Each structure stands twice: as structure tokens, then as C-alpha cells.
């Protein structure tokens, strides 16, 4: 004669129990005491949805549901006076029938409920939180109150990307995402009237269902955002800052806002080399690389509309905010020339280096970031060249001009006057600016341009006969070489310094051997000033 309630399963966690006025969704089996079943929500494939304590249920069920937790199972015995009484339900429930119900509570909410937010992880640093009109990227697991999974972005291996607060989401999610930090994890519980309401979504979510979203926020930006720059290291000495049109070499680590690494120049052991301000890189990087110093380290945060947009690229998902931690190795402009800084010049500086002079000098060669490339000091010997003869890069030929013995200077050479885009494999990176610290130790004056040999005195009027020692009217290479060697040894002539004797002599002989037969005749033999006069007369 009395209501009987047996709690057959009670979950460990019961944050909320049914109270009069709550709306519940539950499954049940209805049977008579002899076990005969008269009704089942399972057979209909949908829960029974109803307000409790408002007379929408038989009195015994109204009482039996109070205090239940979601996922709790109760066995309920309801006497006739709290069920259908002496009248019963024709064809279904006989008069004065005792009813047994096996009840499983699936869902529970109240019309006064609001969105519930439970944060269970929050990063120590939270520079920015979600605001109305922000665009977010997040992962979620969506379940009902009983824990049944109805959807998961993790299963699709793709974040859910959307604007917040402008009606693109259900109202409860619009509210639940506000104030989140990137990296934060929270559980958002949404009553149905702030979710999919009475009708559900027509697919996985039934009508009147409370929804629980376990959310982790991965990304956050606003369409009005520009790039953000955080200076991490700025060298004290910064003589020059990058401008539009400069060519920059830099290292970087590229990550998403949640810290996921998507690219790194360090892993390739090669700088990223590009012009800036000309559209060779994404717009945000074009802007972020302006105004940097060589050696500077900075963080550049780029919103997707200045990055790779909605489509993304490779490992970069669509609508992703990008973080680049960069280290500027060097930069130059294609219009740059050689830069010379003199550190010391002797007071008796009367003889200056010029094209054709033979120079001996020490140097330390480095990159703009200070990386040492080479040093003659470590080799224990000088570097020796003929200035202007193409034995060194063009920038060094320029940097060694007008130098006196004992002078020390720093020569900065842009790559187009150095080793160019290719560099020197294993030694000099491509497109690298080079820095040479130079000390000139010795200078041997060269010959006038175009000359490999000159006389120190008057030229013999019988020059050919003197060279033709056997007087056969022909001069062979051996005779020619022996004669030139004698003139140099006796001080009567001078060879261009810094070149191989045999190569110079052979070159001089070949110039005289006009028919190429390996012999020079008197008719072929001419001095350089005689050649110039004949050419002038012909013109």
C-alpha cells in the first residue's frame, strides 16, 4: 500500500539530484508484480521527458524521481492509490494494479539553469582571453549528462573553428567560451534551452538534452588584430635596421599558439633567406622583419589573415595564429657597396695600394653575427694577392684599395660583391655578408696596367738581336725565357709582382708569336708602345 523505492545503482559522483520543478529525461521498464511488461521507453527508442512535481506524472512516479542522480537506477513499486487507482487504464493497466518501474535517469535540468563552466586546467600565462567577435579554434568532446559521447572533434582530427558571440554557435557555447585562455581546459554544461531545445539537432542530439562539452582552446584571434612583436634580445650596438627591399637571413622556430612546432630553420641547419617588404613572405612576416638589427631576437605573432588564412598550408591548419621566434643573422640591400672602417693608419702613410700591386696581409673573416669563417693568423702565414687581378672576391679587391703598410681596417662586403647566392659549400653560406678585419703587412708596387714586364732603363735598339743569341733569325721560348730572367736578375727589367715567372714569360712569348708556330721572327717582334702606335695609326 506504500511507495517502495530501491536504489539499485548510485554513481559515485552526484553533483545534482532531482527536485520538484526539474525537467528529467529517463528510461524505464514498466511491469506488473508477476513480471508481465506493460510498457518500455527502450522499445520506443526514446527517453520519457517530463517535469517533476507538476502533476504530469502519476503521483508515485513524481515522488520516486525526487532525489535521483543522473545515471542512478531505481526499482520503484507504486501502489494503486499513487498510480491509476480503481479505474486503471483500459486495455493496458487493470484496476487496482500495483506497478513496478525499473528507472534509469539520463538527464536533469531546470528552467532557471544557466551555463555552468568548470575550468580544470589554466596556463600560468594568460595574456589574452576570448571576447565577443573573436575567432577561436578548439577541440572538444561532446557528451550527454550520462556520459554518452555524441560528437568529438578529436575523432575528426580537426579543430572546430568559429567566431564567438555572433550567433555562429548555440547560445550556451557562445557563453561558455568567453574568458578562456589559449591552452585552458574547461567543462561547459549547457541546458537544452541554450542548446538545441525541444527538437534536438535532428541527428545525434535528442530534444530537451543537456549537453556537456569538454573543451581545450588551441587558438584565438580577432579579425582586427595586427601582428604583435615581442623583443627578446636587441644588441646594444645596432648601427642599422632593416628596411623594405633589404635581403635578410634569419633562423626561426615556427609554432602554433598552443606550442605545437610546425617548422624550424634550425632543423634544416640553414637560414631562411628572403627579401622583405616585397611579398616574398607572408604579409605578417614581411611586416615583422622590418626594423630588426643584426643579431636581434624577437617573437612575431601573426594572425591568420596575415598568415596562411582559412586554408592553412602543410602542417599549418586553417585560421591558425602563428608564432615565429626569429634570430636575425644578417641583412643587406642590393644597392649596398663595400663598407670600410679604418681602425689604424700610420702617420707616414705615403704609398697607397693600387691595382696591380702585390700585397701581403693578415685577416680574420667572419659573418655579421660574429661567426668566424677563416683566419690567416691560425694558419701562421699571410694571404698574398695581386690587387685587382681577380684573385679575391670583387669586394675584397675594392676593400684593399688605397691602403698603406701597417694600416688596419674592417671591410664589410655584401654578398653580391662576395660569394653571392651560392656561397662556398661547407665554408660560406649563400647570400652572406662578410666581415674582414685586415692588417696590411707588405706592398710591392705593381706595373702600369696592361704590362707584365717593364724596363728599368733605356731599351736596347738591337733588342731582337740580343734575345736571338744564336743569330738564326728566330727566337724560341727557351731563349726568350733565359733573356728575360737575365734582365730581372741584373735589375735591368721588372716583372709584374705576384705572378708565376714561367706563366708570365710564356704569355709574353705567345703574344709575340703572332702566327703561333712556336717561333718569333724579327718581323713579328714588337714592343707594347709600338703595338699601341700601329693600332692608333690604323684607327
UniProtKB/TrEMBL annotation:
Domain PPIase FKBP-type: 21-109, 133-221, 245-332, 356-444
Location in or out of the cell: Endoplasmic reticulum
A molecular function (GO) term: calcium ion binding
InterPro entries with a match to the protein in the record: EF-hand-dom_pair (IPR011992), EF_Hand_1_Ca_BS (IPR018247), EF_hand_dom (IPR002048), FKBP-like_isomerase (IPR051989), PPIase_dom_sf (IPR046357), PPIase_FKBP_dom (IPR001179)
Keywords tagged on the record: Calcium, Endoplasmic reticulum, Glycoprotein, Isomerase, Metal-binding, Repeat, Rotamase, Signal
EC number assigned by the record: 5.2.1.8
A Pfam family the protein falls into: FKBP_C
Keyword Metal-binding on entry: yes
Catalytic reaction annotation: [protein]-peptidylproline (omega=180) = [protein]-peptidylproline (omega=0)
Enzyme class name: isomerase
Residue stretches making up the EF-hand domain: 455-490, 500-535
Region (Disordered): 512-539
GO cellular component, one term: endoplasmic reticulum
Ranges annotated as spanning the membrane: none
Predominant cellular place of this UniProt entry's protein: endoplasmic reticulum
Function per UniProt: PPIases accelerate the folding of proteins during protein synthesis.
Database matches in PANTHER family: PEPTIDYL-PROLYL CIS-TRANS ISOMERASE FKBP9, PEPTIDYLPROLYL ISOMERASE
Protein's name according to its UniProt entry: peptidylprolyl isomerase
Species whose genome carries this gene: Poecile atricapillus (Black-capped chickadee)
Protein's gene: Fkbp9
